[in-house]
Description:
Blueprint: E1 5-14, E2 17-27, E3 32-36, H1 43-50, E4 58-63, E5 66-67, H2 73-78, E6 81-84, H3 96-100, H4 115-129, H5 144-156, E7 162-166, H6 174-189, E8 193-197, H7 202-207, E9 210-215, E10 218-224, H8 230-238, E11 257-266, E12 270-278, E13 282-286, H9 293-301, E14 308-313, E15 316-317, H10 323-328, E16 331-334, H11 338-341, H12 349-354, H13 370-384, H14 400-413, E17 418-422, H15 430-445, E18 449-453, H16 457-463, E19 466-471, E20 474-480, H17 487-494
Parallel strand pairs: 3-8, 3-9, 6-7, 7-8, 13-18, 13-19, 16-17, 17-18
Antiparallel strand pairs: 1-2, 1-4, 4-5, 9-10, 11-12, 11-14, 14-15, 19-20
Helix pairs in contact: 13-14
Amino acid sequence: MAPIVSMTGIEKRFPGVHALKNVQFDLEAGEVHALMGENGAGKSTLMKILSGIYSRDGGDLQIEGRSVSPDSPRAAQDLGIGIIHQELSLMNDLTVAQNIFIGREPRKSFGRLDEAALNAQTAEIFAPMNLTLDPKAPVGSLTIARQQMVEIAKALSYRSKVLIMDEPTAALNEAEIAELFVIIRRLRAEGVGIVYISHKMDELKRIADRVTVMRDGEYVGTVDAIATPINQIIAMMVGREVKDDPLDVPDLSQAEIALEVRGLSRGREIHDVSFSVRKGEILGFAGLMGAGRTEVARAIFGADLRDAGDIRVHGQAVPIASPSDAVRAGIGYLSEDRKHFGLATGMSLRDNIALASMHRFTRRGGALNDDAMRDAAQGYIRQLGIRTPSDTQEVRLLSGGNQQKVVIAKWLLRDCDILIFDEPTRGIDVGAKSEIYKLLEELAAQGKTIIVISSELPEIMRLSHRIAVMCEGRLTGILQGGTETTQEDIMKLATQREAAMQPTGT
């Protein structure tokens, strides 16, 4: 029996770039086939050819043994191919139901929209997903994680034979990932073939049947997901062995307290949160979706106004009512949504790095010192290993990992003493992730104070000297990093709904 998808000898060129070189890939009905590789390896380009977004320059594409050439996403959908993009493609002003059935809305007589039927059909899709979302809610009011689940529901609504999932769990916590995997297993049992793109190596053993690895636009190999060690798959991806040294938790008990937060509250989101972080320390924030971790970070940074609470930087009370106040106090914030809140994607890499420090590059009369901006940008390109043709490259054309490095460079140039990283490796491949881990450790060793928010427990445990755990807007405990803490310890506090930790000095 022919595979449901067979791609052989696939070629794709863009101006100045040979993106895909003689690539092969196949997918059986009723399997989850993981497609792995570093950012820029060509995974998304290959899937965009399968889903009709790009046309191929060479090779053969077959669906159920028949050669096809989908020339649009709609043509691919007609062939039974659905895709969930890494970058969200929802319309914020429309409701959840309207987004899911855009262009396919049920109608009454005379073409009038049948809102009741639309919402009912949406609820039917949500039911097996165990997703408690109001079909009438505007998509713009949802968190990134909830928006991602709407994208998944939209793809499922087409009853696709082939479902491409590009980083579907990037913004999901463990509970939501578990729910998604239930859905994937059900689809697999029904004969749906699923292409699964992810940078989370631990997910391979949990959900994938086979793994195909790409590197630099070329096919490397296909292996059995269960039988193949993770280290072997990583070596295939990066062409080298990637090792993460065990966490070394320094003794910082005598170090200066750089940031102190007392009684922080905001509406129903944050309730009397108090903690402190010392110079040279990495404090991780863990918790389930809705725990309030990002809300705490935004309140500290002045992106959201707090109802109560005091913030002290190096022992001095600071009035933070806006992000500019926080930056003046030496606080930098890397948002979980870097494209909306961390980057000006239509501007160059050079301009983005300089954005938070324009006063340093402005001459008398308001003219910019382009030479100084170029030198600064090129210095961080070398220091952080940013892969780019030049410092004038538009940021939107960089991979996710390199975009994140640009945001980091922006705040390093500003020389912030306190850095808040919200989901710092979201959508980033394993090689770049390891580089960012080492960078954060180097910054801490240089005396920077770092807060890391992450939905990945292994990441929190890998990076954090201490781990602050939140549940429903409350700080329920602070754990020591290193081998003393387990994932079970964190999850116990993350589900401790009524508990609130008493303020502590460290």
